[in-house]
Design a protein that fits this description.
Blueprint lengths: L7 H12 L2 H4 L8 H5 L3 H4 L9 E7 L5 H6 L3 E8 L2 H13 L1 E9 L2 E8 L9 E5 L12 E7 L8 H11 E11 L18 H9 L3 E14 L5 E13 L1
Bound molecules: S-adenosylmethionine.
The site of S-adenosylmethionine has 17 residues, from loops.
Length: 244
């Protein structure tokens, strides 16, 4: 279902999701439930689960339009952001090279607002490289990483175990792995036979504990605005792992 992430509507939604300010997402004239504000900036919060040490190499799988990759570059000297969507990678590269990108927010029906996504303050974009690719068939020449981040990717893959099996060789000893998943298993993306046979946390443990220690597990909400009145509010399960 790779085409799902290859249309202008979803790119506009993701540029707003990753780079939109609170006033761009939540109309300031409306009294929104507090949980909606708490769900903003997801792409900044999940890289926040890495330690604060400066590391050499980071990998952001399923990076979409790149916000988490830029955030990882604050504490990684080199970050690779990889996504299957050509248009997402083109947008991420535009932000890297030009520092900004115009996009359109859908408000309702024919009513739209023009906005500009901007590279966040304090980012050295020369540290970040974006590449189009398949997280289930990563090229060998990528090498090893001190940090790997994959947010809301696993349940969008046709065969997520292929990626789980790669993490051990992708990470250096003591390397940090941050996984976020809303556990929204859908046959549109993953054949039922490749869904976890147990709950998703149990499935992650079954596949990772041999080579990784589970350091923490918690929930992080996220909010994707579709129109001025329609939002997706979702709880993602965040697990933090350390390579043995
Ligand atoms: C639900 S979005 C999450 C994006 C981003 N990590 C975030 O949290 O906002 C899933 C992303 O995974 C990408 N994706 C889907 N299948 C992929 C694959 N096989 N390899 C790499 N990226 C993939 C999609 O293009 C999309 O950007």
């Amino acid at each position: 279902m790779s085409e799902v992430y290859e249309n202008l509507k979803i790119m506009d939604e993701y540029l707003l999701f990753h780079y939109g300010r609170k006033i761009d997402i939540l109309d300031s004239k409306v009294q929104w439930p507090e949980v909606m504000s708490q769900a903003l900036d997801f792409a900044v919060r999940t890289p926040g689960y890495f330690s604060k040490n400066i590391m050499a190499r980071g990998l952001d799988l399923g990076c979409a339009v790149g916000r988490s990759s830029f955030e990882m570059s604050r504490t990684c000297e080199e970050v690779i952001g990889l996504d299957f969507s050509h248009q997402f990678i083109a947008a991420a590269n535009r932000l890297k090279n030009e520092g900004k990108m115009d996009y359109t927010r859908l408000d309702e029906g024919v009513i739209t607002t023009s906005l500009t996504a901007e590279l966040p303050q304090g980012i050295d974009s020369s540290r970040v490289e974006f590449i189009q690719g398949d997280a289930m068939q990563l090229p060998d020449h990528l090498g090893r990483f001190d940090r790997v981040h994959a947010a809301n990717l696993l349940c969008r893959l046709t065969d997520p175990v292929l990626l789980l099996n790669r993490f051990s060789e992708l990470l250096e000893k003591n390397g940090e792995l941050v996984l976020a998943t809303p556990c929204t298993w859908l046959e549109d993306f993953t054949p039922r036979g490749n869904w976890p046979k147990t709950d998703t946390l149990g499935w992650l443990k079954d596949n990772l504990l041999e080579n990784f220690e589970l350091r923490s597990e918690c929930d992080e909400p996220f909010l994707i605005r579709e129109t001025a009145r329609k939002f997706q509010w979702t709880r993602s399960m965040v697990t933090v792992w350390k390579k043995r």
